Amino acid sequence: MADSFSTEWIKVSEPHPHVYLVELRRKPVNAFSEQFWRSFGKVFDDLRASSTADVRCAVLASALDKMFTAGLDIKSAASVLSTEGSTDSARAAHDVHDYIRTFQAAIRATERCHFPVIAALHGHVIGLGVDIASMCDVRYAAADASFSIKEVDVGLAADIGTLAYLPKITGNQSLARELAYSTRPFSAQEALQLGLVSRVVPGSRAEVISAALDLAKTIVEKSPVAVSGTKRLLNHARDNSVDVSLDYTVIWNSAMLQTKDIAESLVSKQTKRAPQFAPMNKKAKL
Predict the structure, then answer these.
(1) Residue 282 lies in a domain
(2) Cα dihedral 125/145/39/236 (nearest 10)
(3) Which terminal Cβ of the chain has fewer Cβ within 10 Å, N or C?
(4) What pTM was estimated for this model as a whole?
(5) Which portions of the chain are predicted below pLDDT 70?
(6) Pair (109, 233) in one structural domain
(7) Does the keyword Lipid metabolism belong to this entry (predicted)?
(8) End-to-end CA distance of the chain
(9) Alpha-carbon distance 233 to 249, whole Å?
């Protein structure tokens, strides 16, 4: 069933029950053309909205040995964003505005998912790769990972997500700004120092994907109602004051505390058996 979500440049598999592995595979360097980023958004939106797949955690990785992504396909973007021949700059700006908003929405599809998305990063993670990683719930980096917020080098400010998310992710504003202004590459260890990743895994692609899948297997053992609610409340807290977030939590849990998952969690612990949680949608199978 998982393979039915695959596209020309994105492979989807289910290596463990309820854990979906989404791999980027546009050779030679996973450069994102418009078709690619639209496909990226659709894959995650389809996984989120599926009436049959019981997805409880996803791992996002690259299928290429030496590269997560080289970022935006510059030639593809230039052809779309060109205003040559336009007689009205306001109308040209309107078109570009809509294009960028659509692009942002596609890449933010991981954040819209009710399940956590873990980024398994290796090799080069350039430009749009940092945007994509920033919107995932958890980020693991292989020791060979190298990052760059590259947009300034092509004459623009990063506009898909990095500059909005990174200040909320990092505890080191000075380093975040240094990297964004200078575009200099930084290592997995520096990404850990920055707070962009939570773990550096010795090795490369295979090792970081394995570590991310191990985390995903742990997550899917938990109540999907609890995990989904935790993701929603964490995202809300990130963007709101403590008082507003606590008020929202009260409203959310007024409904969610009625879940049967609480009783199942308690009984399974008492009887020392694995819990059996119902799917988040009606048609999916356990």
Answers:
(1) no
(2) -90
(3) C
(4) 0.94
(5) 78-86, 282-286
(6) no
(7) yes
(8) 13
(9) 7
Give CA–CA dist 13/25, Å, rounded: 13
| Residue 146 pLDDT | 98
> What are the distances in angstroms from CA 127 to CA 121, 130, 167?
13, 6, 16
DSSP state of 72: B
Q: What is the pLDDT of residue 154?
A: 87
148's enclosing H/E stretch is strand 146-148
- What's the rounded Cα separation, in Å, for the pair 166 and 193? 13
CA distance 193 to 34: 33
* Residues forming beta bridges with residue 168, ordered by sequence position: none
Environment class of 34 (CB within 10 Å of its CB; exposed 0-12, middle 13-18, buried 19+) = middle
Rounded (5°) CA angle 126-129-131: 120
Sorted by sequence, the CB contacts under 8 Å of residue 252 that are 6+ apart come out as 229, 232, 233
Residues 105, 239 within the same domain = no
